[in-house]
């Protein structure tokens, strides 16, 4: 997927009583102007719009060429996602590698981040729970690269190599064996 001004894959999930299930993106390469993969659900309700999403073994090259962007964005209420074994390289410092806005019961494992940008941003007004952020690594060490965690509970952040972690309004986070 090569684009200069848009996303590689955009999945809209905003129709009432509809859900996107069992969606896999594997072994793809993205060179995008904005986002590599975006699941869009900007409706603030209690309806799960996506589940059983697998994003693995992909390369995200230079996302955010034109402005702040995300390599992978899971927006809105969803569950049972696995994001693992991806390589994310951002073009701009204001970009985010993996953005979580409402996703629960999901695992983010063994992703590699190359460049100076925010690796994870997990934030929403709704509480996100049961996230596992494990075995992810910053390939090049930068002192002011942030991982942002807000309104998350019952989750694990372990065995990662990350920049600093900013935590706001969280409950029962287990943070251990990280190199910061």
Radius of gyration: 15 Å
What is the terminal separation in angstroms?
A: 33 Å
On the 0 to 100 scale, the average pLDDT is 87
One letter per element, helices H and strands E, the order comes to: EEEEEEEEEEEEEEEEEEE
The major sheet is characterized as: 14 strands, parallel
Strand content: over 45%
Outline the structure in words.
The chain has 180 residues and is mainly β. The protein has strands spanning 9-12, 20-26, 29-31, 37-40, 50-56, 59-63, 70-84, 87-90, 96-104, 106-109, 112-114, 118-122, 128-129, 131-134, 137-138, 146-150, 152-158, 164-168, 171-176. The protein is built from no helices and 19 strands. Strands 1, 2, 4, 5, 7, 9, 10, 12, 13, 14, 16, 17, 18 and 19 form a 14-stranded parallel sheet that branches. A 5-stranded parallel sheet has the order 3-6-8-11-15, with no helix packed on it. It is globular, with a radius of gyration of 15 Å. It starts with 8 loop residues before the first strand and ends with a strand.
What is the element layout, followed by pairings?
Elements: E1 9-12, E2 20-26, E3 29-31, E4 37-40, E5 50-56, E6 59-63, E7 70-84, E8 87-90, E9 96-104, E10 106-109, E11 112-114, E12 118-122, E13 128-129, E14 131-134, E15 137-138, E16 146-150, E17 152-158, E18 164-168, E19 171-176
